[in-house]
């Protein structure tokens, strides 16, 4: 192993970039001991050179652009922390690979959309792309899946991978507030992205899931195959009713392999409140991995923020310094499979909230439609009401989403529904 | 990277060895894809050649002894799964290193007692020793600490690392049984080691803690410095009383760095029942890592068993196949520090159970002694009683074990105690 310094160039000095610089400045001797060689930050770049970032950058060269930084002859690793699925992030990473640099990035959107092409380019160039910080912040879940559990056939990966959504959902429950109220709070506190639908629509978390699924199942990353459903339509009523039945609502990502193919979804789900996922509060993330030998492994930690994300970036840099060279998605890019897409093929229990008109036999009519669709009822709860309609909660036995959708379609013919039914999958973990 | 087969020799075909052979047989193509080269099991050895282990060993050479296997010219990696802190395990590993083999082992006792010497020998020989399976079974916690969180200064590592003890404690609580009753149950079910005090005395878990502490703090492994206290003296009464106050009792390992040195202990502790550790049921293990950048990372999974432990062994083998070569404890052995030992220097709240004689002013007398020692009371609960003595529970504010021990010593002068006090540290996680 070489003992010369590993020379770094960092593009992007926002929260994550600043965090990485701070770690490099604070832990020089420790990092040298762990890597067996020094890490040397050579040059940086960002949108504005003059902005005060609260860190001393005087020891580093300033590059005029990401492309210029990425191709400097005096760096070994190009650390891309600008973000964005196209534009400068993408072009500079390609330039870096072509110039013989290894790449470390936190850019999940870029890899979720262009990961296969980038992985192939990296391998053609004999370089590596690492992205631990792209998934679940400080939790070393990419490493766990790619390396720590590499002796397993993975059967399922699931988790809560967007802290903002989990914050909103747990805050709604704790404070009894509506989605709109908590959304406004989160916005006032600066928790939301410029485009908040990236978070609340499940897109950001969907990118992460697509990356984990690729590693777990040896598949080409296929973000388009992720069924996305955001949390915008979750009501405080559903949260409270679910709690009555012993469940919590989470924006849950699930990637599962079955005989029909690879199922990927990022949707609100109910989970048992006593499960590790059910007990996950606030902005924390959790990744749950089921393997044929290891059983269930649960990883939990901060999913965002300066320190945790920088910690993950450092782990990739340290791996490169130590000489670990893995294909981007754990297997050579040309061996990654084009897996057929399976849509929620695995039966599950469902939570169903109906608003029934106060008519004789109303409940019997919808129950009959469920029975016609072959769906049996595990638990049912009817709530008192002062209005012309009454809420009814049903937890079904295991069924498919297709069967449930058919039954829900048939409900309309009964004329007893006061509102559209709400159906949420229950994921047993 | 080489693409020739990585040739393995496995010594020990008990639960773990059998599990490794099964994975190698089941997942050949998958492992080849992940490693970029085939893994080839060349030869095995165990105490009895003729025993039926339920696996087909006909494709492998049988070595007459561990030493013979370890030095075969046709293996690259010697996989030691016999166990035992001395004898054949130790001698064969040294022989393997001297013969230029890398070593993978699940042997925590060996490494906890002789880790420094073995690490030095490995580095002198330019070989690696890996031991993911030695700590917390299937949980990739050695990798998380050595690699995934290598950008952090670690401030504390703690966890439940002995599934048998956690099974006994949760079973006592769930079934309302005494320690002796559950111990007998566990014995009947075959859960206990030949020498059960390795588990119940905290020795096995203490070995694991010493290994994690070495990695976390860059220290020479120092098992003798681990303060050990087993679970044999935990009563159902303490479990129930602790539950009344919102706590669970766990055999908890804690390694923490402070200005005074490295504190290592494996002792029964109270943890909040709502914490991830408090909710850990049965034989599951949990490792909690606090880092200065990542914050708190929690890892949870099966701590023992054929599949989980074999999964961890495979991860080490795969790392070697992929060319990852790290020093045994994450830093070169000669750089590991001889850290001063600190004993429970960090103040904590304590749970105190007293059996007070039914005398006027009894409670006031012990409260005064606590006050004299500078210990203030957070919560106190006196239970009804039919006997000549009454149980009193006290949760103190933060204090040191030394101060508490002095106060407890002073209690005896009051003449109001009907039994020796029970004091258990409360670890806030």
Task: Kindly describe this structure.
With 429 residues, chain A is α/β, with parallel strands linked by helices. The first copy, chain A, folds into three domains: 6-134, NAD(P)-binding Rossmann-like Domain (Rossmann fold), CATH 3.40.50.720; 142-303, Dihydrodipicolinate Reductase, domain 2 (2-Layer Sandwich); 350-425, 2-Layer Sandwich (Alpha-Beta Plaits), CATH 3.30.70. In chain A, 35% of the residues lie in helices and 23% in strands. The first copy, chain A, contains 14 helices and 16 strands. The longest helix of chain A is centred in the N-terminal third of the chain and has 17 residues, at 108-124. The model of chain A has no long low-confidence stretch (mean pLDDT 94). Strand 12 (295-302) of chain A pairs antiparallel with strand 12 of chain B.
Please outline what is shown here.
Chain A has 429 residues and is an alpha/beta fold. Chain A is built from 14 helices and 16 strands.
